[in-house]
Amino acid sequence: MTDVPEPVRKCANLLKGTKSDTEKFAVLFMVTKLVKGRDANAEGKKLLFEAIGFPFLKKLLVSKDLPNDCPPLVYKSVALSILTCFCQEEELATHKDIIAAIPTLLEIVEQADDEDYEDNLIVVSEAYSCLKSIASHAPGQQALLATGAIPKMSQIYSAQSFQTDEALHLIVQLVNKFGVLSWPEDPTAFHALIQRIALDMETDHTDRKYELCRILADILITCRKEVVNNSLDGQIWPESLFKGCGDILKAKIGPKQRDPALHLIATTLQVLGIQWAFMDEQKQFFLSLLQLAAIEVRMQMDEKKLETTFKQAELLTCCFVILEQCIEYMATDQLDLEPKEKQTTYTALKGAFNQVMAVLTRVSNDKIRESTNPRDKNFIFAIVRILSAWLAQETTAMRPAIYKLLPFMLKVANESFHDLKTWRTGSREGEEPIDVLRIMMPALCHFAVEDEARRVLFTHKQDEILLEALEFYFSIAHWKRPPIPRAERLARMNEPDPVPTLEQKAEMKVARGAIVSLCNILMNFTVLEPKRAEDGATFVNLLKFVVENLPELKDTPDNLVIHGNLAVLGLLLLKQQSKKVKQNDFSICRYIQATIRFLWDAYNIDESNDPTALVVSIAYKGNWSDLSELWFLGMQTMCGVLPLVPWLSEFALESGWAEGIVKTLKKVKIGTLPANVKSAYEDFLSQLVDVNGDVQEVLKKADALRVCRNHRMMDLGKKLFGD
């Protein structure tokens, strides 16, 4: 304590020598001058803090039992003035006593509109200053989160109390630190806050409009997306954002205004989805947005040094988010464009993606590709991601250049996938990494059928990574109850089964989409690379994974499409690896039963309005566009598998499927059976007859003769009854 200035030392001794609260309070006026002056260094403030004693300062802040010679507000004001100066030092701002005073400070700012404070608003200002200093350090941030400071500050700002900008800056500081954890399950405070800021942004026509764009983007990106989207009824802030952003797009603006606006638009699309861009049921906002983002990408990436382009990473990433959503929406064919609009849009996108390609090619040959700087790394991920989204739709352009760039794109995508996998199996600290490989999967479906691209994929052992990705995403889609520690099992025996949270349900939906894409890629590999599918270690492990996991998959409507994809992928692999299959292998038996269930349940007459009409079952109807090709491919492949693994025919008999087909078709009105369905069933039943001597008897008993006559199944008729 040798470096404590003399005036501070004297004051501390005076404080220690006081005999009453009144005496101590009198000395505090000297303290307020000292702590704001040049003599108060960090050691000096610490000495004064200890000499005063925090209990006395807290008494001044909260107690009503104080001497009557001063109004209570004066005591509060003096205490806060001193605390504000103490909080400028990290050691004191993180002191357990000051951290414990957070609820008191929050109470003061919450009461800013009370009559008591009207004459002395400095008290509220000082309380905000203390909170701001406390929020600058990790212990204070954690304590503010735990005491519900964010919802409280949101309430203060939405009520437009005194000094609400201070509340807003505190919110931004905390949400930037804690992300989605900032918000409780109840979204009321979040909606109230965003509504207030969105309305201010919409109606303000000064530079503050663009500052609010930045703040809105920072807060929106941290929300609990599923919770917010499920509670939007009656909320008008999406419309306020739409109008405010629409005004900006129509105005003549420079980079200072355009950048925060693009940032806000990109974030809003991430939270609310592309439908937000059609709030007025017109396409103009969408087209203006697409053009602006495409032009910005072209300008920022056009023949500049890589260093210059990387400096614009944040802005470009926002443009990429906008373009990705626009491209995906256009691929759904819901947008009705005039020929001129189509041409303008395609020209803008092509110009942007030529530049993206050029920059990524330069990155792949530059030392920056090995950068460990998270900002550089994330920007490279973002470039590969947006190019992958474009290549999922643009399936013919720039092929030679793409094949050359593909190894680097795979390296980046695989790295991002492993980052996500590590994050999920670890402590899950920080923001969740984006899996670029998942975004690339639709493009990989196209590459899987192109000879040159497929050669590159196998050269870089991408099949191994895709199997790893399938296992990873299956573990998310196939949600299981978290294990209960053995010591707690008895006590928790009667607990109801837990259900996934909204966030987990959203993760499961994403995982199911990834599984479908992965199955498509792997099916193409299996069909187009039969030798690899027969002998390759990855494909042997892939079949093992499918036969072991498909029977475990929960029988829910959400899982039907992945059930079908895994079932058919398994059949294709089984056909190639039939020589390795052992008779009555238990896992194969369970897999075939699950596959039969998928193929059997697709059609029935029980759910038809007409008891003589065969219809797609209700369970399949909603997803029939995804399932119909799978069903026909599954039936066709089953016909190819039966001669190679004839003992599988026993399951078609024992399960009652073969007999069930005949009994169902017997009820179907003559001339109404679709030709492709008739072929699928006839080929399958014919194949069964060929490989299993017991089938004829079963089919004849079920009245196959009438079915063959009614539906002109000539080939099956000849096999069963001769000419």
UniProtKB/TrEMBL annotation:
One of its GO terms (cellular component) is dendrite. GO terms for biological process: neuron projection development; regulation of neuronal synaptic plasticity. Signal peptide: none annotated. Belongs to the neurochondrin family. This is Blast:Neurochondrin homolog. The lineage of its organism: Eukaryota, Metazoa, Ecdysozoa, Arthropoda, Hexapoda.
